[in-house]
Amino acid sequence: MSLVRVEGVTKEYMLGEQKVVALRDITLAFDEGVFLAIAGPSGSGKTTLLNIIGCIDTPTTGRVFIDGREVTGLSGDALADLRARTTGFIFQTFNLFPVLSAAENVEYPLLQLPELALKERRKRVRRYLAMVGLEKYADHTPNQLSGGQRQRVAIARALAIHPRIVLADEPTANLDSKTGEGILLLMKDINRQLGTTFIFSTHDRKVMSMADRLVRIEDGHLAMLAVRVNSKWQGVRTPRAHATPQENRV
User: Fold this and answer.
1) Residues paired with 11 in a beta bridge
2) Which residues contact 88 (CB under 8 A, 6 or more apart)?
3) Assigned domain for 128 exists
4) In this structure, how many other beta carbons lie within 10 angstroms of the beta carbon of residue 18?
5) Residues 6, 27: contact at Cβ < 8 Å?
6) Cβ contacts of residue 131 below 8 Å, gap of 6+?
7) pTM as predicted
8) 8 A C-beta contact, residue 215 and residue 241
């Protein structure tokens, strides 16, 4: 069974008096454990698709399934609870609370899980800060950290909830080339160690070169699907119109 399944998703919104179609009849599926890049130029719809998969946004038409459960039509509270328990988020601007320490930023999403006692929260904070190499910086606030260190805190925060999926929106865009490559290698290592699914929205070729699955979007349409085998892209294909999710599986 696919971890994520998107069926006939279209997304429209109004920009002033003009209707904008961000996504057009997207049908797609992929399994748990992938390291997947959703690529395309600015305005192509890639971030919109990422937000719909993450239940931050809802489609105008179509259906979305996470781990076999349909999430379209759920209430705002139900979607918030689903996000809190299944999906970690990493943003290009880090989105850390400036007045909180690194440890407090990592702990923050755990406060939304009332079943977690203080001891378990602190244990997770220590574990994931250590995993990203920042255990010595737990008490530092974001303005005392470099851009790469802040992104590592964001990765630890995303992992602390034990997510099935981590969504990363242009995670290397505000980092220099060397730091960005280090962040990508770290996330790839976590993907291999923990089996966590990573999905990137990107136009960075370095992100695409490290992915093992590639979805390309152009003008709101699926334009290409590809699978990496033995360091080379194979199974490159144009998505079929009116396909089933299994036919457009990556």
Assistant:
1) 23
2) 109, 157, 158, 159, 160, 161, 163, 165, 166, 167
3) yes
4) 7
5) yes
6) 156, 159, 190
7) 0.93
8) no
Distance CA 18, CA 60 (A): 16
127-159 confidence digits (pLDDT tens): 999 999 999 999 999 999 999 999 999 999 999
pLDDT band of 29, cuts 50, 70, 90? very high
Q: Give the residue from 121, 193, 207, 119 showing the smallest Cα distance to 157.
A: 121
pLDDT of residue 145: 97
Residue 132 in any domain: the answer is yes
Number of domains in the chain: 1
Do the beta carbons of residue 208 and residue 202 sit within 8 Å? yes
Counting other chains too, the contacts that 187-191 makes at CB distance below 8 Å and 24 or more residues apart are 187/35, 187/155, 188/35, 190/131, 190/155, 190/159, 191/33, 191/35
Crossing angle of helices 118-131 and 147-160, rounded to 10°? 140
Give helix then strand counts, H and E, for the chain: 7, 11
In angstroms, the CA 108 to CA 3 distance is 26
- Which residue is it, tokens 């601007």? 93
For the domain that residue 86 is a member of, what is the CATH number?
3.40.50.300
